[in-house]
Amino acid sequence: IEYVHNKNFIHRDIKPDNFLMGIGRHCNKLFLIDFGLAIKYRDNRTRQLIPYREDKYLTGTARYAIINAHLFIEQSRRDYIDSLGYVLMYF
Predict the structure, then answer these.
(1) Residue span of the structural domain in which 7 resides
(2) How far apart are CA 72 and CA 82, in angstroms?
(3) What global pTM score does this model have?
(4) CATH no. for residue 85?
(5) Is the pLDDT higher at 4 or at 54?
(6) Which ranges carry the Protein kinase domain (predicted)?
């Protein structure tokens, strides 16, 4: 997730199905997949944050979506702690 953020993106669909374990020489790595809902949160050129929006439809998987997503507030980097908590409760 940190790597994705360093590339100025928010994944927006953190759930167990989107994490894969590597095989062979990559067996100690965890991979994040399915970037279909990802959005930029910062402009590459200016490094300015792109403002979040309200009145957005639920994005991602409802079971793992954070409370703000259910309140139609666009997800941001701060919401990953909640999403990861929901994923950990799954296991």
Answers:
(1) 1-90
(2) 16
(3) 0.77
(4) 1.10.510.10
(5) 4
(6) 1-91
Per-residue burial over 4-14, b if 16 or more Cβ lie within 10 Å, else e, is: eeeeebbbbbb
Contact 1, 32 (CB under 8 A): yes
- What are 22's two structure tokens? 């590597």
Asked whether the CA dihedral 62, 59, 14, 77 is positive or negative, the reply is negative
**Which pair of tokens denotes residue 66?**
């954070």
Does residue 20 or residue 44 have the better pLDDT? 20
Alpha-carbon distance 19 to 34, whole Å? Answer: 9
Locate 56 and state its tokens.
Answer: 């957005």
> Are 51 and 74 spatial neighbours (Cβ–Cβ below 8 Å)?
no
What's the domain count of the chain?
1
Amino acid 55: pLDDT: 62
